[in-house]
Amino acid sequence: MATPAIALLDQSLPFGGGGSDRLSKEIFSILESNFLFGAQALEPAGACSAGRVRVLSIDGGADGGALAAAALVRLERRLQELSGSPEARVADYFDVAAGSGAGGFLAAALFARRMPAEAARDVVAKNRKVFSGRHGRGGLFNRPEAVFKKVFGDLTVRDAAKPLLIPCYDMATAAPFVFSRADAVEAEAFDFPLWQVCAAACGVGPAEVASLDGRTRLRAAAAAGGTGAGVANPTAVAVTHVLHNKREFPFAAGAGDLVVLSLGGNAAAGSGARASSSSLLRIAGACQADMVDQAVSMAFGENRATNYIRIQVNNLLSCTVIFSQFTPG
């Protein structure tokens, strides 16, 4: 059985009132020294360089991506400080991004729209009902997909500046489907409007998502809370993509050639005593995310302590922040 190696208690992280903006400074000091900026010089990532491939994985979590967005804001600010460039963006320091649920929106906003992390966080904060899957059917949220149309306009998956992966669930085939920039570059049959992809990942999109040439049509869906059904944690999707994509990542021969930052959300958000269908779906998504976390960390073997990091909040009410690096127990 695997157990978390480090659990950090941050009493400065109150529930509500913008507290998610004050994520633990200790976590990011560890990130700086052991993950992104340790032995390697602080320089923009290069997918075809001989260095390790930097992977960013974001799952929205039951909180609709609020904590992941706050973490990205803090990370981008620190990158700007360390690089001395106020224009530095998170996307500059990663080679590939994967996102599910609200995390799919965040990944697309940062890597395709090149939106500052603060702006992406503001979109999530102002539209919490949309990203958490609790939008209504009338009034302001009558057309929740309008949020995504406003952000992405005519951008498609192919327009991402770097490899982008957004897994979803196709109701028509009863199987997962991954929207991938690599596939979109190869054929228009796999290129989709980004606003449709992100809306579908959050469970608020149109009934059908169609490729640009109309040849590929999906009845994409997401589980309650903006967590893609069966793909709550996209880290495994990202790692597999890198290791099997020799065209874009020719030097990635194994887990030791990757560094992975996996951002989760508040796993306990929206949970309660009443066992509704939506709460059960959230619980299932949280369990799946933890299982992927454990499987990926074990796959990294002896490199898990330096090459793989997952950050999530297990209980925001008690301010418990988990910094997961799994070790055999």
Automatic annotation (TrEMBL):
Comment text on domains: The nitrogen atoms of the two glycine residues in the GGXR motif define the oxyanion hole, and stabilize the oxyanion that forms during the nucleophilic attack by the catalytic serine during substrate cleavage.
SUPFAM superfamilies, per the entry: FabD/lysophospholipase-like
Record function comment: Lipolytic acyl hydrolase (LAH). Possesses non-specific lipolytic acyl hydrolase (LAH) activity. Hydrolyzes phospholipids as well as galactolipids. May play a role in disease resistance.
The protein's name in its UniProt record: Patatin
Protein family: Belongs to the patatin family.
PROSITE patterns hit by this protein: PNPLA (PS51635)
PANTHER family xrefs: OS06G0677000 PROTEIN, PATATIN-LIKE PROTEIN 6
GO biological process: defense response; lipid catabolic process
Lineage: Eukaryota, Viridiplantae, Streptophyta, Embryophyta, Tracheophyta
Record InterPro entries: Acyl_Trfase/lysoPLipase (IPR016035), PNPLA_dom (IPR002641)
Residue ranges annotated for the PNPLA domain, each copy included: 56-239
Zinc-finger in keyword set: no
